[in-house]
Structure formats: structure tokens, C-alpha cells
Amino acid sequence: MTPTLSSHFVCGLLAGAVRRGVDPVAVATRMGWDYEALNAPGARVTAADFSSLVRVLWDECEDELIGLTASPCPRGAFALACELAIHQETLGRSLDRFIAAHGVLTRDISLSLDLEGDMAVCRVRVQEPELDPTGVLQELWLMMVHRVASWLIARKIPVALVDFPYPRPPHADDYVSIFPGTHQFDTECAALHFSTRYVGLSTVRTESELARFVHQKPVDATAVQGEDTTFSTRVRTMILRQRGLPLTMPSLEEVAESMRMSTPTLRRRLREEGTTYRDLTRRLRHDVVLTKLADPHLSVGEIAHIAGFADAGNLTRAFKRWEGMSPTTYRGERGTEH
């Protein structure tokens, strides 16, 4: 069955878009909806269409807060915050960096992460709640933070409790699919509560995975972005989690044993996905190098050690094969020289 959502979520976003000069009827028509029918009691849209609408309105409004705050948030702010987040070692540090980066780009919505006993609490506050009368902006950002956090560690994070700073709405049943967990209303602010054990888990995503996530995934309303079931991603994640950094590569036999399958089976599964273990480990090392080159505080020699190269010379030779230039030249072109 195709997941659907109350049109409340759509109408709330369209109302904000009007403040940025967007014609809601034209957008509804573009999405294949009857604008008047959206306001009818019981009207629903597919979760996939809602996700598409968010991306359309980000572009049309040139505002990632979709007119639901006093000032627009520039397009690309979310992607930039994610890019900074993936360069941290753990989920807690990644979320701290994501929150700090987003706070520089907008003051109209604030995010915070607090550790309270055995719970991590991520709070979302809007500076002028009257501009978000239906609460849809706060709901959207609770959803996005949860999706980002789960994606960063390649694991679905169970939500223990979700706070909503308003009375239980008629569409509250939709929260079961969007925010699995217990819900409470009339709270001080919007918030997600999840176990602190996830905060210390390793961030395993790289820049090569970021573009697809930012383009497709963060506003998927009913799909929590966690574990990728492809064997290539499972192998990458296992290496990063079990081996950590500095990067050391286990043998294919060791990986197969950890995944409780035979070596020929794993080799065949990877081949079916269009890759080999050798190619996968090369790309993983490449991704680690690219990620660390974005940190201007690390020297090429330090990055060589982190990525498992014997020395800076070996890294430089490999990098020239990958990118056609030295790591120093690559950094210079991106303004991140050490």
C-alpha cells in the first residue's frame, strides 16, 4: 500500500510559500493536485508527493524555511550543514557541527542537542511561532534531523519520545509513520528523544554519498534513512565501524566471516552489484582521503596515516591516479590548504 499523509502538511507549506510570492494554485497544479480539494476534510496526498513538494518549494521560494519564518534561509544551507557534519568522527560531534553551521545561516529556527540522563534530546525552536501556525515547519525539521542522524551512522535510530508544542491535532495519527515512538503534546518546544548510545557511534558517510542523500532523502516523510541493504555499503560500514581510523583493510575472508557468509558468496554478491572487494576498498580509502582533505588543520602526512598509507608520498601517487593532481593542488583549488 502506498503511504499517504494528511493534506494538512501540504496546506501548511503552501501557506508559507505565499509569503515568498509563490502561487499555491500553480504549484498544486504542477504536482497534479486540485488546490481546492486539498482543503477538504480527510484529503490526503502520497508521502512521495509530499517529499517532492518540499524540494519544489525550496527552489520556488529560494528559502529552505518555505516562508514560515521572518527571513528566508538560503538554498543550500541544509546541504552545507550536512557537508560539515560528515567530517566528524561520531554522531554527537556531527550533529553539533550540523547545528552550529545551520545556526550561522539562519536565526529564525534554532536547533540544539542536549544529553539528559540516558536520553539525547534534539530540540527545534522557531523564533516567531505565529508564522508557523500549523506547526508544519517544526514537524518538517524534526523529521529532517532524524533522517540526517540515522543516515550519518547508517543505522535507523529508534525515537523514544517526540514532543509537540501544541495540542494534539486531528492529523496526529500520521505521526505514527513519520515519527515512530511515543508522542506528547503541549510541550515547551518540539523535540526528539533517543538513546545516548547512538551519539557515540561512528559517522560513516562520505562526500561521495552526500549529494544523493541531500537530493533525495532528507524529506522522505515515511522512510527513515538508516541501514543500506546493499552488500557494498554493508562492507564499507563494517570496515569503518570495526576498524575505525587509521584505516586498515581486513581481508575478504575476514569480512565474509564477520558477515556470516562464505567468501565465494560475498564475492558473487559484490560482483552482482557491479563491484569487487578490491574496488570497494580503493573507493573507501579515496573517500576517506577526500573527506580529510576538507579539514585544513590536517597535513597531507597526517591524512596519509589516517587513510592507511605508508607515507605522504604513497598517498600523493595514489591521489594523482584518482584525481589527476596532487592532494596539495586539490586543496588549493578548493581553498583548504594546510
What does this molecule look like?
The mean pLDDT is 88. With 338 residues, the protein is α+β, with helices and mostly antiparallel strands. Helix 14 (300-306) packs across helix 15 (312-323). It has 2 domains: 4-198, no CATH class; 228-334, Homeodomain-like (Arc Repressor Mutant, subunit A), CATH 1.10.10.60. A hairpin with a 2-residue loop joins strand 3 and strand 4. The radius of gyration is 22 Å and the shape is globular. The strands form 2 sheets. It has a 5-stranded mixed β-sheet, with helices on one face. It has a two-stranded antiparallel ribbon with strand order 1-2. It is 49% helix and 11% strand. The protein is built from 16 helices and 7 strands.
